[in-house]
Specification:
Mean pLDDT: 90
Number of strands: 6
CATH topology of one domain: Rossmann fold
Shape: globular
Order of helices and strands: HEEHHEEHHEHHEHHHH
CATH class of one domain: Alpha Beta
Distance between the termini: 31 Å
Amino acid sequence: MKVNKKESIYQALIEGEAKPFLKEPFQGLYLLPSSIDLVGLELELSDLEKREYVLRDFLEETNLNGKDLLSTFDFIFIDSPPSLSLITVNILCASQGVVIPLQCEYYALEGLSLLVKTVRGIKEAFNPELRLFGMVLMMYDPRNRLTHEVAEEVKKHFKWIVFETVIPRSVKVSEAQSFGKPILDYEPNHKVSEAFRKLAEEFLGRL
């Protein structure tokens, strides 16, 4: 889906209005897209007194059809960059739970403890409601020894939050991205699509 830079979360935050920027690619699913303009948002937020809570206030105060955004939707998922930026801090301050997608590679495992420490730090300093909700093993290749080693290490230290469902590695995911489609729409009967359905059921079961 192509995104006009003037129709994104950046513009919505600046103007305090979400309705013109919400897209509905599938029935019941709404998107508030990102854009490259978010790069400049850090500087614009840096001088604000409560800069950590800009996104939270936006979700709580923005009116959409007579209700705020939190009351409008059953779930709001926010895709966060892996770096600890002011944008990421805003996302963590606005969230109730964190789901960590972990690629089954060594370098992803190396930064995991730091990420978990960061989440706990945000919880203590800014958002006492924040919790680690789950961890998902991504790009899982059962033929790869490193995949098994990473999975075993993660379950050894974080077994209490690791989802049982794993998302397998497949070239079909890249193909779907090249067509601008989610894998469940591009190949609804593929093993990755089935894995995402199981993950959704497991996620709902934890609520």
